Amino acid sequence: MEIRYQVLNTLYEIVKDKPDPQTYPCRPREIILRTFLDWSIIHQNLKILEEEKLVTTKQLDTLVITITKEGMEIIKGWLKV
Fold first, then answer.
1. Which residue in 15, 16, 21, 78 has its CB near the most CB atoms, within 10 A?
2. What is the pTM of this model?
3. How far from chain centre, in Å, is Cα 10?
4. Are 71 and 12 in contact (CB under 8 A)?
5. Alpha-carbon gap, residue 10 to 12, rounded angstroms
């Protein structure tokens, strides 16, 4: 699995049990704690995922990442395979 999709899967694992996973404001530390990747690699891949419209990012006090409907559908499709 490509690194960007590993990052997307990690984000999915964080939000999947939330009442409204597409609006859960995931913070970088939540992703960092669940992967063995350096933040620079995670951040680079988040930018790619955002270009693909699979996640959105917003700079508040820290970076906030949310998974999009399309991102959820891709991961759910892979999990069924």
1. 15
2. 0.91
3. 6
4. yes
5. 5
